[in-house]
Design a protein that fits this description.
Length: 206
């Protein structure tokens, strides 16, 4: 059995300056102000666009991220409708296979320390689930049958593509104090990376 922390990675090299310039070029068509484009005009122009709420122009650019989280959190992520998803399938993945180390991988709950009794209860339950899953496979159950005992804590990988406008909506909801702790654990780190890689577009979200 393996226990890991949630994580994420960008699927492409991100050129924040290129993204800003591309959005500016599209947005200025609305005002027929293409003649005002300069080497450094994009940042201020897009900042003003966001302040005015003209966010539809942000849909011209998309970002793809692979998120490694538990199944419960992935169920919340896919509620965002303007997006594309490709997710690790418990129906087809046989975790008893050598490709997966013949073991289940779980996401560590961020709200319990290793010494907490609640964490120990959780850990023992995950061990029992792994044992029972492998036993079912050994008895001839197919992965799509054995998966019925798999918990929310099971690790999953999900490739997420959203346009910039939807990412802004995503972070507003999923970084808020009302979001699930396991969700905030990963989205707050993601938001910091988005801010570093793509200036202006996420500066107003905290």
């Amino acid at each position: 059995m393996k226990v890991i922390n949630s994580s994420f990675r960008f699927n492409d090299d991100i050129d924040g300056s290129y993204i800003l310039k591309k959005i500016e070029k599209a947005a200025r068509v609305c005002y027929k102000s293409e003649d005002k484009i300069t080497d450094d005009s994009a940042s201020n122009f897009i900042a003003n666009i966001i302040k005015r709420g003209h966010e539809s122009v942000l849909e011209h650019e998309k970002i793809t991220v692979t998120i490694i989280c538990d199944r419960g959190i992935s169920h919340e992520i896919v509620r965002h409708r303007i997006a594309s998803y490709s997710q690790e399938s418990t129906r087809y993945c046989n975790y008893s296979d050598g490709k997966f180390g013949c073991e289940l991988t779980f996401i560590k709950p961020c709200f319990w320390s290793d010494s907490d009794e609640k964490y120990q209860i959780w850990y023992k339950q995950m061990e029992q689930i792994e044992y029972n899953y492998n036993k079912l496979i050994q008895m001839g159950a197919k992965p799509q049958e054995a998966r019925d005992i798999l918990p929310n804590s099971l690790k999953t990988e999900i490739v997420v593509t959203m346009n910039i406008r939807e990412w802004r909506h995503f972070f507003r909801l999923r970084c808020s104090a009302a979001a699930h702790p396991q969700m905030r654990e990963i989205t707050q780190k993601m938001l910091l990376e988005f801010k570093m890689k793509i200036p202006v577009l996420f500066d107003d979200i905290c």
